[in-house]
Amino acid sequence: MTEKNSRHLGSIDGLKGIGACIIAFFWHYQNFSPQNGSPFFSVFPVSYKYGSFMVELFFMLSGFGMMLGYSERIISRSISFREFIVKRLKRIYPPFLFFTLLTVILELAYYYRCGTTFKYGNFDIQHLIYNLLMMQEGFFGTEWSFNAPAWCISICMLCYLLFYLILCRVKKESHACYVFFAAALIGTALTISGAKYPLWNELVGIGVSCFFIGALLCVVYKNREKFRYQRLGYLCLGFIIMCYLVLRFKPEFMGDFRTVSITGAAPALILSVLFVPWLSLILGIRPLTYLGSLSIVIYLVHFPVQCAIKNIDEYAGLGLDYSTKAVWLSYAAAVLISAVLYKLAAANAVEKAVAGFFRKKDSKTKA
Question: Could you tell me if 159 and 63 are in contact, meaning their C-beta atoms sit under 8 angstroms apart?
Answer without folding.
Answer: yes
